[in-house]
Design brief:
By secondary structure, the chain is an alpha/beta fold. The protein has 22 helices and 20 strands. Strand 13 (421-429) and strand 14 (435-443) form a beta hairpin. Helix 17 (475-484) runs parallel beside helix 22. It is found in: Endomembrane system.
Length: 641
């Protein structure tokens, strides 16, 4: 497909082969360093500790790629340049590479000496966005000239290759890294007019393998590796990989340029197909910088969530964004920086519910990579808490070291213990500024709550992980009804906590009311037993009063063991005749149930003082405000009503 494009697609090859190309790269690097240092010296850039993002279109992307490869300290075939497991397929091509494309000597001179002597960037790059880039054509030409040469990997966290399918200059990058991706279409960038916050389609490698296991199941034969002994673990992970070994996942991850898909196709009007090929590059060049689809996509990828993950009433306008008080530090262990190259953080922490006067303990786990391949061991984590949300200041509590399992456990000292309320907590990894958010709820006795099983009561399809499942009609409205009456919402699931970010994102996208969430600690053989133990602990040790509970037929036993009566247990979906008398079956769905709750006598407002501190809002998405309501005063100072 690359060779079949119009002759205009060969122009980048001539540019890269020019002796002046490396001089242009040097000038580009010098200019970028000047801009960076001027910003650091400016008032706006003082104390800057964020990530640097590079964007390049057409030839600019080639210059940026060369600069990033230099930052590797690689000469084009160094340690970060890895041969793919599909090289043999490439070598067996029927094409006579040397007759089709003979590379001039300047290109060879570039890979052998220019990189080592050329200018290098003075800063680290997080994400690298390429617009209409001919990089894949250039790399393919080098591969044709020298089939044994490895593809240099740019020194950045993630590469995004955005292009119009009809652009004669641009082409796909993924099949060069893994031939299997030639069988997969590029990701379609959603139209901003229809999906301003994205359409929830999977971008991560793990999700791609999950969605298309047939394209990756033969990897063991290609690699010649035996299947790892973790097959039993694979079978217990709900909705994850089937028939694909962990060695295949690890091999693909090691050679990939990030943790997500690389190729992203933009919407292209049908009328452009009638334009002459030589006119298209000029049109597309302008469109990349003017397209709302591109702008929204870039912002979604680089935007880091810093706020409080729920939103309240519109009359509270001010919220405080968290900014780390100090720049990133060197890792405590030298090996940590090597292990964490090109892996995404998957930190998590369950929300904490504590009766006032009891020990206030925070727990979190810090992991990286799919399936928790890498544990953060022996590194510093800073713990911050906001005592007066949503517009209060973040208070530094302590710095803890992760143990060999990546866990930290911190008990808030009695002298600074919290009065009842719901408080945001943010834990920051000192080495890379990745973070995890959670909440600690200090509640008075007999706090009334409503419990929802996420999978049993909300989802209308198999799995929250991976694809976006349908929401049961009326589920969000029922949750909002109970929240408006002043009840504390508790969301429970037996899923492993490695899926926490995905599930919370799904709740956010569908505007579920904010509640406190509990996941299982790792993979469990008895998820229903975990739910029972968790709820019994809240009832017996923290004074929680469960007024109603929702779930599937599997949850009936859980709720009954907690002491709920049949009229307090609401079940959606099919229920066996033997269990129908133990619960209230919502055979007509949530709409009819909500109508019954809204009539006089159908439901009542929550009792007691807890309703004064329970937030009324939703899980939020990046950029939304937040408004948890709280009262940070001791329970004894509130008169009984």
């Amino acid at each position: 497909s690359i060779l079949g494009k119009p002759i205009i697609g060969a122009i980048p090859l001539l540019s890269v082969a020019s002796p002046e190309f490396q001089d242009t790269v040097n000038k580009t690097v010098t200019a970028a360093n000047i801009v960076y240092h001027e910003f650091i010296k400016s008032e706006e850039g003082h104390g800057f500790a964020g990530q640097v993002v590079m964007l390049g279109d057409s030839m600019g992307s080639l210059l940026a790629y060369e600069a990033l490869c230099r930052s590797n300290g690689s000469d084009g075939g160094g340690s970060r340049s890895s041969r793919t497991d599909d090289d043999e397929r490439f070598n067996d091509s029927d094409l006579d590479a040397k007759r089709l494309l003979v590379a001039p000597s300047p290109r060879r001179r570039r890979s052998s000496s220019s990189d080592s002597r050329g200018n290098k960037l003075d800063f680290e790059v997080g994400d690298f966005f390429m617009f209409g880039s001919p990089l894949s054509i250039v790399l393919a030409s080098r591969k044709l000239h020298d089939a044994k040469a490895a593809l240099p990997r740019p020194n950045c966290n993630q590469v995004y290759n955005l292009f119009h399918p009809t652009d004669p200059i641009a082409s796909r990058l993924e099949p060069l890294l893994s031939a299997r991706f030639s069988m997969l279409a590029p990701v379609n960038v959603p139209r901003y007019a229809k999906y301003p916050l994205g359409n929830g389609q999977p971008y991560h490698l793990l999700e791609v393998i999950q969605s298309h296991p047939q394209h990756f199941s033969e990897a063991n034969n290609i690699l010649g590796n035996r299947r790892l002994s973790d097959a039993s673990m694979q079978s217990t992970i709900s909705g994850l990989i089937e028939n694909v070994s962990l060695s295949t996942i690890h091999s693909l991850q090691m050679k990939w340029w990030g943790t997500k898909r690389l190729d992203y196709a933009l919407y292209c009007p049908e009328g452009l197909s009638n334009f002459p090929a030589h006119a298209l590059p000029h049109l597309f060049h302008a469109s990349y910088w003017e397209s709302a689809d591109v702008i929204a996509f870039v912002l979604r990828q680089i935007g880091k969530f810093d706020g409080i993950p729920f939103v309240g009433s519109a009359d509270d306008k001010d919220t405080v964004t968290f900014h780390p008080s100090q720049p990133r530090e060197k890792w405590m262990k030298k090996r940590t920086s090597v292990k964490l190259k090109n892996v995404a953080a998957n930190h998590r922490a369950n929300d904490v519910i504590v009766l006032e006067g009891r020990e206030q303990r925070l727990n979190a786990r810090f992991m990286y990579g799919p399936l928790d391949m890498i544990t953060l061991h022996g590194e510093k984590v800073d713990i911050h808490l906001m005592k007066d949300p949503p517009a209060g200041e973040w208070t530094f509590l302590a710095t803890e070291l992760t143990d060999k399992n990546g866990r930290i456990s911190y008990t808030i000292p009695e002298q600074v213990s919290l009065g009842y309320g719901i408080y945001p907590v943010k834990m920051i990894v000192r080495g890379d500024h990745t973070s995890v958010d959670c909440y600690v709820a200090i509640v008075p006795p007999m706090t009334e709550c409503v419990v929802f099983s996420i999978d049993g009561s909300f989802t209308a399809s198999m799995s929250v992980t991976g694809r976006d499942p349908k929401v049961r009609a009326g589920a969000v409205d029922v949750c909002r009804h109970w929240q408006e009456l002043g009840y504390l919402l508790i969301y429970i699931t037996g899923r492993p906590d490695m899926q926490q970010q995905r599930v919370v994102s799904w709740l956010s996208q569908h505007n579920f009311p904010h509640g406190l969430i509990s996941f299982a600690d790792g993979l469990l053989t008895d998820p229903l037993g975990h739910k029972t133990t968790y709820l019994n602990n809240l009832v017996q040790n923290h004074g929680i009063s469960i007024v109603a509970a929702y779930g599937s037929s599997k949850d009936i036993t859980v709720y009954a063991n907690v002491g709920l009566r049949s009229e307090q247990i609401f079940i959606v979906g099919k229920v066996s005749k033997k269990l129908q008398s133990n619960a209230t079956v919502l055979s007509d769905g949530y709409a009819a149930h909500l109508a019954g709750l809204q009539v006089v006598g159908g439901s009542r407002p929550a009792k007691g003082n807890a309703r004064m501190v329970i937030p009324r809002g939703c899980f939020n998405l990046p950029g939304q405000a937040s408004n948890p309501r709280r009262r940070s005063i001791p329970y004894e100072q509130i008169a009984d009503e």
